[in-house]
Amino acid sequence: MSLNKEQFLQAYRTMRTIRDFEYRVSDEFGKGNIPGFLHLYAGQEAIATGMCMNLDDDDYIVSTHRGHGHCIAKGGDVGGMMKEIMAKQGGSCAGKGGSMHIAAVEKGMLGANAIVGGGPPLIVGAALSAKTLGTDRVGVSFTGDGGSNQGTTFEAMNLAVVLKLPAIFMFENNGYGEGTAAGYAVGSKDIASRAAGFGMPALKVDGADIFATYETCKKAVKHCRSGKGPIAIEASITRFRGHFEGDAQAYRGKNEVKRLMKELDCLKIAADNAIKKKLVTKAALTKIDKEIAVFINEAAEAALAAPGPDVSELLTDVYSSAY
Amino acid sequence: MPIKTYRQAINEAMAQEMRLNDKVIIIGEDVAGGAGCDGERDAYGGVMGVTKGLFPEFGESRVIDTPITESAIMGAAAGAAQTGLRPVAELMFMDFLGVCFDQIYNQAAKFRYMFGGKVECPMVVRTMAGAGLRGGAQHSQNLTQMVTMVPGLKVVCPTNAYDAKGLLITAIRDNDCVIFVEDKFLYETSCEVPDEVYTIPFGEANFLREGSDVTIVGISNTVNKAVAVADRLAEEGISCDVIDPRTTSPLDEEAIIESVETTGRLVVVDEMTPRCGVAADISSIVAEKAFGALRAPIRKVTAAHSPIPFAPALEDAWMPQESDIEAAVREVLGYTR
User: Fold this and answer.
1) How does pLDDT run across A137-179, given as a tens digit for each residue?
2) I want to staple A168 with a disulfide (CB 3.0 to 4.6 A). Which of A13, A140, A290, B235 is the partner?
3) Whole-angstrom distance, CA of residue A169 vs CA of residue B322
4) Is the separation of the CB atoms in B41 and B55 below 8 Å?
5) Which pTM value belongs to this model?
6) Which of residues 50-109 of B touch A (CB under 8 A)?
């Protein structure tokens, strides 16, 4: 078992924070308290958590439209995120980003990206900075199975190999790109073997197992930090929610979501394994659950109570200097 | 003062800034050339030789040859700019904007705003535009209008060697994404260019000729054509203000409006297709803000609304020529209600 007790509790806390955050914003969206579009990470928590536990604050990640989980796992301020998503003052992007552009730049989370496949070329740049400036930082792009089919992703993988950059291409295969199955849309046998075709090692992991994702990500980060160039990971996982909140998911099988939520709940799997192996007690996890419930509720209530942005800020931050 | 070509001036700006700041890097296709080949490195120094000599001086960690992969080049530059470098990325022909535009207009241009002002994106995209070399529909376009309309980008169109050096140094030091549009017709043109490092501010137009009868505004090399026309017309006693905005974003609206308030007549020239182009934009600004000063309708001189043809006779007909500018000036001068 890779994670020790302390690490496991940290991982569990992060996963629970993401899950509760997602369910709360879903509720608030349903109540009309959140404008725009929401794409939730519920069910995929072990991947962001397993990866980001292996990263330092000054390592870089880029994310997708489904980016809340990555932002929280990288240490983003949950209160600021909640305010941002609810379009309130104090939001982490000053009300100019929202859910699909959530970011925690101070923690190396360079931004969620609403262009599918938009992130991989950017992480090549972050990895280029690390190599050129001689730091030992690494860059991780989180991309879905949908983004794995974009040309930008192919170009990014090739350039990372050519320039031997410390970039990790993490593909979260949740089975669906919007409402089309990955099995239909990914033309190759799998995403990992296609990534390997670009000339980098590619690993596969059960993304519902925090122990396995942590261990696999650890290997990948070590590979990059030691100057061996890029590496890819395909993590299989499922999506508990629709592509977006409000998605009727008519494309999914009868009882599919219900079954997967029962069989592939990374939080439940993590808890069961850790308790069975006597790493932690159920009481310790229940304590975390309660703490997180309070924490998320406070963040949500503070966001609900906060005022909206000042309209006079419409034109600030378009440019860095007078225009 | 030494005479240098437009090509040399651009090269010198990059070399001097790279010496001053080790965070400045060059990235693009064949910016050195010869990577992995049996022959020489720096075999190209850019397809037009503009980056020649940078590789031998600065090495492969700062002059980075890439595969033919424009999306990844622009994305890598944007990601690098967000994380501490100051990349000068080369987009070989401006026509290739189509394959990498997302990384420029949806990513680099928007980081600062989308993330609440917490990041900067100090990158320069050097690119080459301009018709007349028989490059056909995909190697000839000036797409300055497509980048000028994007909030978050700054757009520079140097029209002589002196401006090219000073504006490029300003671009490299700027903390936003700057699109630097080199007119491929100008690489061999030369003028006095100081050896010293100097900057030219963005958003300050240059009056190339001063006159009182007609204002001519020209973008990229068309402004040089306008100067030739103005000089000829001066012999007839017609005097023109010829304005080079230098940057289309920001645009020195004030200089243009001030001039029109004196002359009452405006001819705007660019080498873009006519709809939604820079000439159209400047026309609309003047129509809105200086309508009362106009003594004749604004006249646009642009390229034709078609892809750029290959055959020389067709391409010449497609492009705005000096004769078109002259005819437009005479037309606005002869206008009576």
Assistant:
1) 999 999 999 999 999 999 999 999 999 999 999 999 999 999 9
2) A140
3) 53
4) yes
5) 0.97
6) 61-62, 64, 66-67, 69, 71-85, 87, 102-103, 106-107
